[in-house]
Amino acid sequence: MLICPLCKDISTPFYKDEFYECVCCGGIFRPKEKLLDNEKEKQRYESHTNNSDDLGYQNFVSPITNAVLKEYKKDNLGLDFGCGKDSPIVKILRTNDYKIFEYDPYFFDDKNLLKQKYDYIACCEVIEHFYNPKKEFELLKSLLKENATLYLMTGIYKDSIDFSKWWYKNDLTHVFIYREKTFEWIKKEFGFENMSIEKNFVKFSNRKE
Where are the domains of the chain? Predict the structure, then answer.
């Protein structure tokens, strides 16, 4: 049994020796000995060929950008957390004159951005890379203003999925997989009033809906 890196409860083997399942929050995670070191992880991200001008890429992130454009004004302050090398979220929102900053521990590591609070934070295909999800969600919550929103996109595992054939697990940098149950735990643990899940788009907020 291993300790879950999110809720710190115990876990049981889930898939071969590659993934364990938490008995409390339902998270599915790789054991520490399977995690890439920082250099190999960065090399993996540097190999990504994503281009913020690509219309397909922009369409992929549209659940987040459409929500921000609908729910926030141009002078609200936003952060793209884990933005990668070239973020379509930042591209789209800045094109619409929105104030959004980009933070990434490998490509835009400006720690000053982690010393202020934001009206909204976007994390697109980021949270599955968290080696220490408890620490990262504590950080994200601390960066949000009182009535702010956290927008997430990630592959969500359901029991109807054949995990052995699920492509999402094959990326070695995907180290923590979430269920809907996991997000329910996060909502309660970190004190969010509202949560919604639509396909691979998750929204937490303390705003009055």
Answer: 2-205
Rounded to 5°, the CA angle 78-96-136 comes to 20
pTM of the model: 0.96
Quick one: CATH architecture of 2-205?
3-Layer(aba) Sandwich (3.40)
For residue 147, the surrounding DSSP H or E stretch is strand 144-153
Contact criterion met (CB below 8 Å) for 28 and 17? no
CA 175 – CA 186 distance, rounded (Å): 17
CA-CA-CA-CA torsion sign (39, 36, 7, 68): positive
At 16-63, the pLDDT tens digits run: 999 999 999 999 999 999 999 989 998 988 887 778 999 999 999 999
